[in-house]
Every structure is written in C-alpha cells, then in structure tokens.
Amino acid sequence: MPHRFDIPAATISGLYRVIDRIGNLGPGAGFLRAPWSDEESLAMQHIESAALAAGLTSRRDPVGNLIIETPGMFAEWVETGSHMDTVPGGGNFDGTAGVVAGLAAITAIFQRPLPLQRGLRLRIWRGEESSTFGTVSAGSRAALGLLDPAVLTRTYQNRTLAEAITSQGGNPGAIRAGLPLISLNELDGIVAHIELHIEQGSILEQGNFDLGIVTGIRGSSRRWVHLEGAFDHSGATPMGTTWRRDANLAMAYMQVRLDQLLSEAITAGADLVQTVGVVNASRDLNDSIAKIYNNAVSKVSGYAYFSHEVRGCNSLEVHNFSQDACDVIRQTAAEFGITVEIDEFSVVEGIPALDHGLQQLLNDCCHAHDASTTSLASGAWHDVAALHRFQRNNGSSIAVGMLFVPCRSGISHSPDEYTSPEQLALGASVLASALASLACHLADSSLHHTVHTL
C-alpha cells in the first residue's frame, strides 16, 4: 500500500508567493521568464533557497540546470522535475507547477522517518519553451547531449542563445561538445523520473477528474503551405475557376477538406489532432514575402499561405495522415488553378506509451488519496520526453511517467492560466506517494520489467 501524504495547500501558496512576482508583466499581462534570463534564474534561486532551508542539497550542471537532492550516498535515484521559463505573456503554472509540487513532495518525504533505499532528486530544467529561441526542451536536451549546437546562434531580444547561457553563468561550449552533461554513472542510477504538469487542456475539468495519468506524448509534423494564384480586379473578373485563380478561396476549401479528412481518420480509429494556426499572418514570412501585401479588398487574392500541424503519439500515423493531407492540398490547388509549395519545417516523433509500471503506480497512489482519475495522452511536449528518448550505454531507456493536474477551462500559455493551490497540493501529495514508494522499493513489483533492466 503506498504511503499517504497530505501536503497542505498553504505549502504550495507559500512557495508561489515569491514566484508570483518574478517576471510578472502586470495585471492581465501574464509572465515572461525567458530561457537563461535573469527572471528564470531568480525563480530557480527561490526554489533552491527553499530546498536548502529544508535540509536538501543543490548543484548545477554546466549549462545551469538546477539539481536538488536528498543528502546521502545512493546508488540509485528517483527523480521528478520540470521547468520555470514561460512563453511571453504566458501563465505561472506551465512547468512551474511541477517544480513547486516536486519540491513540496520531496520535502514531505524527507521530513518523514522513511527507510529510503534510493535518493530523491528534483531537476529544474532551463529553457523548455520554444517560443523564444525556437527550440524545445533546450536545457534537458543539452544535459543529455541531444541538443543540436546550431541552435546556439538563434536569437531572442538581440541576444544569441549562446550569449544568454553565458550571461547566466553557463557554458555553451558544453553544448558544442555534444556530450551528456550528466555522468554515465548518474544516468545509470536513475530508476524512474515522474513529471507533474498542468494538463493544458480541459479533459480533466470537463470530466470532473482530480488528476490525469499520462499514457503517451504527442509529437508533431509542421509545414508551411504557400499558394500562388493570380491578382485580378474583384469587380471585373467573373466568378469561377475559368476566370479566377483565387488563392484565398482555394485555401478556404483546403481547410474544410482537411477537417473532413481528419474526421474520417478519427472515425477509423486514429488518435490525431490537426491545426491551421497561422493564415497570412506570420511576421517573419511577411517580412520576406512582400507580395502578401498585394492582396486588397478590391482584388482577387493572388497569394496566400497557412501553417498546418498534425499531432499524435504514433509517429507512423502522423506521417501517413500528413501525406494524405498534402495530397488533399495539392488536389485542391490543381482544382483551383493554384500553384502550391509545401515546406515541412519540423518533425518531432511522438511517444506512444510512457512506462506502464509507473502508470499503474500513479493510479494506485491516486486511489490511496481518494482522487478520481482518468488516463489520457499529453497533447503538449515536455522535458520528460527528452529523458524517455535518451538511450543509455546498455541500450536501456529511463522509465518515465507523467501526472496531470487540471487547469481552469483548459487555458494555458495565457495570463488566464490557473490551477488552484488545493489542486496542486493533491497532485503533490500523490506525487510524493509515488516517489516514496519507488525510493523505499515498495513499487518494484509493478516496475519489474523496467527497474530490473537498468
């Protein structure tokens, strides 16, 4: 039976009291703690101070990821972690909730006289968000030697990523070396890593579930679709494809047909989502493609573009649907006499299944806390995915799991992002129960297929 913890909501509120001020842009404007910024560093320092005050230890890796640990020498470790950077104008719970809950959970375990046979570790990753330097999970991927050194030249607010890392005391040369910043001995000793995160969707709230157990993580396939038609007078040019090569009209038909295509795929059993997020409105593209400004109220549109994204846990399913979608786009373009160019700019493979033993453990811990739960895939990417992808020298991967807490109305990456202290306290309590079970070897039977292959 898992240990039960009852972490008070006041503990969560107390840790948030300082964080609520760091990177706060003002009423209704949200937060900005950019990767490797003073604000991200201050938030991490606050967590470090609280951890040290609780009797835990701290250290940093060469790029500035913060590691909090229970004192003592252990051959094996049980981990949790998340990030504290935000998107511009985002909320204060994406990532940060997992850090706060993780510290509260480890502190609660440490304060009990439990027979820990494994150490407990909280990793606070730098730079998970991609909205600044254009790369996701930069800190965790750098720590694992998985980050492409080319991203060091990308800029945000007139500063390269390399300069940002240096400004916060990190060493970008460690990324250029392309080697893991975590020692091989330390990597081999990680028994499991569980990340708590807000759902960033509304399945939990709408289903009235207290918590969610994540089954897999959706990857993505992204492309720009450029459409070239012909500019003509809107009044003098007759209707119909004989006379008009209307790029905007063709684009509208494409979007409707793509939606129909996905509906058919879902009916056939596919687990996919699809989004057209940008239509003729990318600042970067508009700066380089001046002809977009030749569109006018009194003209038949001669040029248009849109973004197209497909997400799913199964990479083959995503690939196959993306190919079908591109076929629909090309067929529709031909029907309207439009020239089409499709530029795929990003492919991130999804994770079909997180560790089944950890899913069962989290389910047992939820029941021990009388918390209602459901299983669901994560639509967003997370640092835990980088850990899942990493292959150790013996060919094994790190067992990873995720626990979701609800967020109000499913809103995230917004000033309206919110999860209550009570919801986070329950999540932290269940997380503590799972971590304690692993640290005391109580969960080894459910993790037999994972733990004994390390």
TrEMBL record:
Signal peptide: none annotated. It comes from Mariprofundus erugo. Zn(2+) 1 binds at H83, D94, H197. Gene3D superfamilies: 3.30.70.360, Zn peptidases. This is M20 family metallo-hydrolase. It holds the Pfam family Peptidase_M20. Belongs to the peptidase M20 family. NCBIfam families: hydantase (TIGR01879). Keywords: Hydrolase, Metal-binding, Zinc. Transmembrane segments: none annotated. Zn(2+) 2 binds at D94, E129, H413. The lineage of its organism: Bacteria, Pseudomonadati, Pseudomonadota, Candidatius Mariprofundia, Mariprofundales. One of its GO terms (molecular function) is hydrolase activity, acting on carbon-nitrogen (but not peptide) bonds, in linear amidines. Its cofactor is Zn(2+). InterPro entries: Amidase_Cbmase (IPR010158), Bact_exopeptidase_dim_dom (IPR036264), Peptidase_M20 (IPR002933).
